[in-house]
Amino acid sequence: MKQEPLVTIITAVYNAEDTLEKSIVSVLTQTYKKIQYIIIDGGSTDGTVDIIKKYESSIFYWESEKDLGIYDAWNKGLKRAEGNWIAFLGADDRYLPKAIDSYIQRIADIDNSLLEYISSRVCLIDNNGKPLGLIGERYDWKRFQIYMNVAHVGSLHSKNFFLKYGDFNTSFKIVGDYEMLLRANSSLNAGFLDEITAEMRVGGVSSQGTRAFKEVLRAKQLTNARTVVQLRRDALIFYVKYYFRKILGFKY
Length: 252
Description:
This protein has about 250 residues and is α/β, with parallel strands linked by helices. It has helices at about 20-30, 50-55, 70-80, 100-110, 140-145, 160-165, 175-185, 210-220, 230-250; strands at about 5-15, 35-40, 60-65, 85-90, 95, 115-125, 130-135, 150-160, 190-200.
């Protein structure tokens, strides 16, 4: 019988006293128990650190100091991570109780030692916890090079993934996870779990409209994911859709 793999979960946080506790509890109450939890706080000035201290006996490692943003915090977490699989959960997002169990079972079913990444479906919620819809598709390079069709929230990366592709690029403030996956290009060995594993609150750093899209274009250019002509077409399509939705009054 194969030994159960260790899963490291990393949460980057800054001034999230209203949401962090639910995220922490969702990790600590997973039905899968071989979990190593790391929290990197960016020097919060509210009650965030007090919440972390409340659960520190169940946290493998935590720190609180100024950083350069979420991807710098994730890189700090990676330096401490010992897991065979590594996930990133936002401070205002939360796992469903059997999320990691489902991931590990799916990985076992795939039975591919070269598997580098596996994602699932995620439920978007508003500030009151009301469901808004689902995100997350199977990784497909033809789609992924145009838009991030996978739900990165809570998804699992093999330890070898980071040895192969490196750390997160801290020059990005919003789409560093997309840029990281773009580096793998069409060669990414990815799996998919067709289940909802997490809830993601809309309104986080990754939902900042045109600012996020400008970073998306830079990520594609930096990784040579798209040609100049394709980038121009992507930009045209985005701005037409963006302003059309704005005129119609769509919030999300």
